[in-house]
Specification:
heterodimer, A: alpha/beta, six-stranded mixed sheet, four-stranded antiparallel sheet, 10 strands, about 25% strand, B: ABC transporter involved in vitamin B12 uptake, BtuC, 2 domains, two-stranded antiparallel sheet, 19 helices, about 70% helix, binds magnesium ion, ABC_transp_permease (chain B), branched-chain amino acid transmembrane transporter activity (chain B), cell membrane (chain B)
Chain lengths: ~260, ~450
């Protein structure tokens, strides 16, 4: 584990996938006004795991991640981090507990340079750790070449790398990724997933929302399938990958 | 290949769109612009209209020599630029290069070295300290009553719009609150204060009052996006103005408060009273501005300043990196408000009288113009912009007709925003913003517009 957390919830104990999970969502009900976007979603993410969250457009994947990172509050249900309730905590405070969120659509600070973006990512630490910067630049050499570039002028793939790098600068234990492959060329998607694997091997737990089901399930240990606000399937990633329903819905029947 | 021909535009339509008549070509359009400008300038600088014969002056200006002079000058400029532009350009570049290169080298050296930098700042400060000794009483008055006061206001407003990116159209409301606080605590209002204070001691109280007022206004409204916030602050200003006007028993109504105390110091062994002479007030202002600037520059480069920048860029991403967006927005609002309040205290103490008409909504709009004109987010820009825009109408007092003074100010603002929207001395980031807007990579609208749309 390369992550040294600044603050942990009281009484938190390190536990593997078998013990207390790192993140647990229990029966979440989330509303946007009168619309019920999540109708009782439950899932767990164990320490060190990669968990994929699949689903059609509008299924509620982003909503699930936002609820986990405190950007939205559930009307009902619980969010537990290492067995401790954290729902009701605002996202900027939840960051202190080691949850990093790479939001949908990257959202880099377009008018800051790459370096300024990364420094901003370390905002929760009183001073950024130079080792983290090195780590990000090793993971993403393309960013290292462009550290003085204004990030709004980066290509889409580079912006995605920057968004991930920025989240890593905050030393997250749990990284929530919302469609990191959106709009990227297959080769870049491949690269990004390689890097995600590396990040996971360095000790960060990943909860990954993806449309690219085959890539996501190859990387993940386990997966959940969401449909109109409810979990309809959950299994080992390899089992999902070979499940005919998943193949029909997300991979296309005819693809071998 | 059996497309419905009747639906498709005939090819000649495209050709027609591509073809430009001679008068549509940029060169002749520029000439047209110059002629229009000449007519406008001739009207502006020519004879003034009279109430009972509006058209006489317009007619006279068309027949005077003024219009011929303007036409000759502007069409001349046009002709030189169109037909000899190349030669002039190369000449200028050559000359410019010869002059600019050594200057730039020198500047580069100076910039690089701290000693020079501090030396330059020190020299500037010395110059500012002795400035009132070098100018006439009239300009001393302008310097103290207007430039000094509005510089302070603009520095505060810059925190709100330049750094935190919130459009505030009611900023002078806090200035008014500061001024009325001064009147109240020195016993100048119809209501008696619990105890009377020296004007200097009112400053911290005004800061506190404006902090509270800023938080009270900010807390319910800061969730609003840029344009809505602008309207809310505008409404707040109008409320403060109307309260000052109509609460006769408390504020003195339209008459306001007269014969307020001035600054004074009494240390027992030494005492000093500020009287009518503007110079001593200037030094008080200068000291206050320097203190505020030192504090703000430190703030800009601290965690707080970085949080503001992040909020300005993208609130959702800022929250995701751990910035408490609501708190920092409130903080910017409160800090700006209290700076404006200090300016209000100094203003009231110098003037010796206040009334609601000194705090009309137009003042807030002007304050915004000072900041934008100088360069949002850039402290040297804001200082320079305020000084220039306040100085200009006063300078024009002797040069043009009295009622035309603000016409020139408006014209300057229009021209400036077209040709140099980043302001006189822009901040580095603002330059990025405008460049990227030109390239279509991001909006130039630093206020309110969030790249991702929805806010949580
Ligand atoms: N701010 C909002 N206001 C109202 N409804 C919303 C809001 N955000 C999301 N929704 C609705 O909630 C549902 C779930 O949205 P969500 O963004 O979680 O979907 P998603 O699974 O991430 O889809 P996609 O794959 O297209 O990103 C959708 O029906 C959406 O229209
Ligand atoms: Mg989504």
């Amino acid at each position: 584990m390369s992550t040294e957390v600044e603050r942990k919830p009281e009484g938190a104990a390190d536990a593997g996938p078998e013990g207390t999970p790192l993140l647990e969502l229990r029966d979440l009900h989330v509303y946007y006004g009168a619309i019920e976007a999540l109708k009782g979603v439950s899932l767990t993410v164990g320490e060190g795991e990669v968990v994929a969250l699949l689903g059609a457009n509008g299924a509620g994947k982003s909503t699930t991640l936002k609820t986990a990172s405190g950007m939205i509050q559930p009307r009902d249900g619980q969010v537990l981090l290492r067995g401790e309730r954290v729902d009701g905590i605002k996202s900027h405070e939840l960051v202190q507990f080691g949850i990093g969120h790479v939001p949908e659509g990257r959202r880099v600070f377009a008018r800051m340079t790459v370096l300024e973006n990364l420094r901003m990512g370390a905002y929760r630490l009183k001073r950024p750790d130079p080792a983290d910067l090195d780590r990000v630049f090793t993971l993403f050499p393309r960013l290292a070449d462009r550290r003085k570039q204004v990030s709004g002028t980066l290509s889409g793939g580079e912006q995605q790398m920057l968004a991930i790098g920025r989240a890593l600068m905050g030393k997250p234990e749990l990284l929530l990724l919302d469609e990191p492959s959106m709009g990227l060329a297959p080769l870049i998607v491949q690269q990004i997933f390689e890097i995600l694997r590396e990040i996971n091997e360095q000790g960060t737990t990943l909860l990954l929302v993806e449309q690219n089901a085959s890539q996501a399930l190859q990387l993940a240990n386990r997966g959940y399938v969401l449909e109109t606000g409810a979990v309809v399937m959950s299994d080992e990633a390899s089992a999902l990958l070979s499940d005919p329903r998943v193949r029909a819905a997300y991979l296309g029947e005819t693809i071998e | 290949m059996s497309a419905d021909v009747s639906v498709r535009k005939p090819l000649s339509a495209a050709a027609r769109l591509r073809r430009r008549r001679w008068y549509q070509q940029p060169r002749w359009q520029r000439l047209f612009g110059m002629v229009v400008l000449a007519v406008v300038m001739a009207q502006v600088t020519g004879e003034q209209g009279e109430r009972n014969d509006l058209f006489h002056a317009i007619q006279a200006n068309f027949q005077s020599t003024g219009i011929l002079v303007w036409l000759a000058v502007l069409v001349g400029i046009w002709a030189v630029r169109e037909f000899f532009g190349e030669q002039v350009g190369t000449q200028r570049r050559r000359l410019g290069g010869e002059i600019a290169r050594p200057v730039q080298r020198l500047l580069g050296q100076v910039r690089g070295q701290r000693a020079y930098r501090w030396g330059g700042l020190g020299a500037l400060l010395v110059f500012l300290i002795i400035l009132p000794l070098l100018i006439s009483t009239f300009w001393q008055q302008v310097l103290v009553d207007q430039i000094g006061v509005y510089v302070m206001v603009a520095i505060g407003l810059n925190v709100v719009i330049g750094w935190a990116g919130m459009l505030d159209l009611g900023f002078i409301a806090f200035f008014a609150i500061g001024a009325y606080s001064a009147a109240f605590w020195t016993g100048g209002l119809p209501v008696e204060p619990p105890f009377e204070l020296n004007n200097f001691l009112v400053i911290p109280i005004a800061v506190l009052t404006c902090l509270i007022a800023g938080v009270l206004l900010g807390a319910p409204t800061l969730r609003l996006r840029g344009d809505y916030l602008a309207i809310v602050t505008l409404g707040f200003h109008e409320i403060v103005y109307l309260l000052a006007r109509n609460l006769n028993e408390f504020t003195g109504g339209t008459r306001g408060a007269q014969q307020l105390d001035k600054f004074s110091v009494d240390l027992g062994f030494w005492s000093y009273d500020w009287e009518l002479d503007p110079q001593p007030y200037y030094w008080v202002q200068l000291a206050a501005i320097v203190i505020v600037l030192v504090l703000f520059i430190r703030l800009e480069h601290s965690r707080v300043g970085r949080a503001w920048t992040a909020i300005r860029e993208d609130e959702v991403a800022a929250a995701a990196t751990g910035v408490d967006t609501v708190r920092f927005k409130l903080l910017a609002f409160a800090i700006g408000a209290s700076t404006s309040g200090v300016a209000g205290v100094i203003y009231a103490s110098k003037q010796g009288f206040i009334n609601p008409e000194q705090f009309v909504v137009m003042m807030s709009v002007l304050a915004l113009a000072y900041v934008v004109f100088g360069g949002m987010g850039s402290i040297p820009g804001v200082l320079l912009g305020t000084a220039v825009l306040v100085w200009l109408p006063e300078y024009l007092r002797d040069t043009v007709d009295a009622q035309d003074r603000f016409l020139y100010l408006g014209g300057l603002l229009v021209v400036m925003m077209i040709y140099r929207p980043q302001g006189l001395w822009p901040s580095r980031r603002r330059q990025h913003e405008l460049k990227m807007a030109e390239e279509g990579t991001a909006g130039a609208d630093a206020l309110g517009a969030q790249p991702g749309g929805a806010q949580s």
